[in-house]
Design brief:
With about 350 residues, the chain is an alpha/beta fold. The chain has helices spanning about 45-50, 145-150, 165-175, 195-205, 220, 245-255, 265-270, 315-325, 330-345, and strands at about 25-30, 35-40, 55-60, 60-65, 65-70, 80-90, 90-95, 105-110, 115-125, 135-140, 180-185, 210-215, 235-240, 260, 285-290, 305, 355. It contains 9 helices and 17 strands. Strands 2-1-17-16-14-3-12-13-15 form a 9-stranded mixed sheet. It has a 6-stranded antiparallel barrel with strand order 5-6-7-10-9-8.
């Protein structure tokens, strides 16, 4: 299949710039992948769409303030830095803009969120084939401890902000209510709709709520730069599966109960950690570069709650694969559902509305 097979036209006004006033107020498109029928709903009705015995799997990774501002210590030129992955304490792979002005040994002086120069420094010690820089930070025992002071919430580029005061608002809303383990540079956005009360209502209905962790990085949001899907290679991302989650999922699968993934990141964890022989979910920590696209059969996930994704993105390709496991026609079904969502004025992308595929 080709990347262009997953393209579609989206009116700019449907790209959500703000979340709904309150969590849980989003719309939700229900899609039955067996019948191909979809219908409008609201996210607040999600508990009614679940069954006693279902296992709902959430990604509890916490977004860090991964966007930093700095200047070239020698020239004064400005840099924007996005933390990608920690190698060890104060040693990180990052994206630097403009990268061509940051060769090896470049020294960067960082600013706080108000533009004031700090005593934090970094030196470029390596550049990889993808153009990412490896930075060695100094002036702190751990740069992670400084992010509240100098870091910004790494909103995706399609969300526009002109007022710096919005940063604190996004710090709360671009984070799930159950976020726990810090490490993501983008939110697992399907989870942004949940409130503590909704989760409680779901549990009261006999649904078991479990957690996995996948720290969202380039593997989730990097653009596909090839035309043939078979040539695309995902970036690795770290994940972990708890013993209790593996036990709950495996029990559900053996008893014919549904496993419902919240978000594409949860899908990637569950399908990456599934034993290739037994199909059982394995607990533990690992890394994944799984690229799910049509045709693909799923070992663990029975239903998927997700947002509406960018054209030609790996996230849309995963959803297309899930819509028709083992076939390629899921692309047409998803794009038809997206066309309906556009006609009905659904809000797209990170702060947008939800879709439940059963």
């Amino acid at each position: 299949m080709l990347v262009s097979d997953f393209d579609f036209a989206l009116p700019e006004e449907l790209i959500a710039q703000e979340p709904p006033a309150d969590r849980g107020e989003s719309r939700m498109l229900l899609l039955d992948r067996t019948t191909g029928v979809w219908k409008d709903d609201v996210f607040a009705h999600l508990p009614e769409r679940l069954r006693s015995g279902d296992v709902l799997v959430l990604n509890d990774s916490r977004v860090i303030r991964a966007r930093l501002r700095g200047r070239n210590r020698k020239t004064g030129g400005e840099f924007e830095i996005l933390l990608l992955e920690e190698v060890c304490v104060n040693d990180w792979w990052v994206m630097v803009r403009p990268g061509k002005r940051a060769p090896a040994l470049t020294q960067i002086v960082f600013q706080d969120r108000h533009g004031k120069t700090t005593d934090l420094r970094a030196t470029v010690i390596e550049t990889n084939v993808e153009g990412h820089r490896r930075l060695q930070f100094t002036g702190t025992q751990n740069i992670l401890n400084e992010l509240e002071r100098i870091g910004e919430i790494p909103l995706p580029p399609y969300i526009k902000r002109t007022d710096a005061s919005a940063d604190q608002f996004d710090a709360e809303r671009y984070q799930t209510v159950y976020a726990n383990t810090a490490g993501s540079v983008a939110a697992p956005t399907a989870g942004l709709h949940f409130t503590p009360q909704l989760l409680q209502d779901i549990r009261v209905r006999g649904v078991q709520v479990c957690h996995v962790t996948l720290h969202v990085g380039l593997g989730t949001f990097a653009p596909v730069k090839v035309e043939n899907l078979a040539e695309h290679v995902m970036h690795e991302e770290r994940y972990s599966v708890r013993e209790e989650t593996a036990h709950a999922v495996n029990a559900a699968k053996s008893e014919g109960r549904r496993v419902i993934a919240v978000g594409t990141t949860s899908v990637r964890v569950l399908e990456s950690a599934a034993d290739t022989t037994t199909g059982k979910l394995r607990p533990g920590c690992s890394r994944t570069k799984i690229f799910i696209h049509p045709p693909c059969r799923f070992k663990i996930v029975d239903s998927l709650l997700t947002n509406f994704h960018l054209p030609c993105s790996t996230l849309l390709m995963l959803v297309g694969a899930f819509a028709a496991p083992g076939e390629t026609c899921g692309r047409e079904l998803i794009l038809s559902a997206y066309a309906e969502a556009i006609r009905e004025g659904y809000r797209f992308f990170s702060y947008g509305d939800a879709m439940l595929i059963v």
